[in-house]
Amino acid sequence: MDDDRTRELEQSAWSMFSFMGRGPGGRIVDTPTRLVIESPVPRPPYNGVWRFYDEGDRPLRQQAEELLAPMLERGVSPVWIVHPTTDADIRPALADLGLVCAEEAYGMRADTADIAPPAPAPTGVEVVEMTADDSEPWLDLVSRRYGLDPESSPYLLEVYRRTLDSGTRGWVATIDGRPASKAVLHVADGVAGIYGVATTEEGRGRGLATLVCATALSAARADGVERTVLHSTPMARPLYRRMGYEDVATFELWAVPDTLHL
């Protein structure tokens, strides 16, 4: 395990996903041993444990139960990220509490100089940078991606605006004016993280995910950012490898069975 690269992957994810708890009614626990995010949105990944280190004064199962119980009592579906530098013994503790490893995310890294610039957009496709005033395309894509109900919209829109206010940027590709793909660029500690990549059925097979990611990374490179990371689903991994990313470490997403669908 490359400690520096692994640390970049972890720190980028913790910085980006902390915004999920920053809307009205959200809650964040951010300590050296914990990053816990809670929100009113009931579906994953808007409630969960993103950083966990053993505090050493009580069994791991008890520590895990203390963190999960408030979410389960609220009736939301939590996700627990088993990140590369956490205690490996947390896995049996989570299994004992009824969670399963629902999916693996591949932490990947590249130098921005090695990522090709964005290709010309296909006919009928336009790539535009998101602003606080054009939240509808972003909300549409996020809601489709995670199967969210309209009741979640006010919270998500507030998180969206706060994320953009922090300097995070995003791009949407449209097909004849309809939102079809998006990507978010989050720069923290000099590392450009790519997040929130999602493409509709209509947009698949047209290179739109590569287009929006390359557009975001071109902006990062123009700002002098030299390194980029992302956390890929198994399905998207070949795409990112073609772009120039390499595997560094694996992140496991643990959840109550049949609640996490990424």
Q: Percentage of helical residues?
A: 25-40%
Distance between the termini: 26 Å
**Helix vs. strand class:** alpha+beta
Query: Strand arrangement, largest sheet?
Result: 1-2-3-4-11-5-10-9-8-7-6
- Stretches where pLDDT is under 50 for at least 5 consecutive residues are none
Total strand segments:
11
Q: What pattern of helices and strands is seen along the backbone? A: HEEEHEHEEHHEEEHEHE
Shape: globular
Rg: 18 Å
- What proportion of the residues form beta strands (DSSP E)? 25-35%
Give short descriptive properties of this protein.
262 residues, alpha+beta, eleven-stranded mixed β-sheet, 7 helices, 11 strands, 30% strand, globular
Structural account:
The chain starts with a helix and ends in a 7-residue tail after the last strand. An eleven-stranded mixed sheet has the order 1-2-3-4-11-5-10-9-8-7-6, with helices on both faces. The model has no long low-confidence stretch (mean pLDDT 91). The protein has seven helices and eleven strands. Strand 8 and strand 9 (191-199) form a beta hairpin. The chain has helices spanning 3-17, 60-74, 90-96, 135-146, 153-165, 208-222, 237-243; strands at residues 27-31, 34-38, 48-52, 79-82, 100-111, 125-129, 169-175, 178-188, 191-199, 227-232, 246-255. Helix 2 (60-74) packs across helix 3. It has 262 residues and is α+β, with helices and mostly antiparallel strands. Helix content is 32%, strand content 30%.
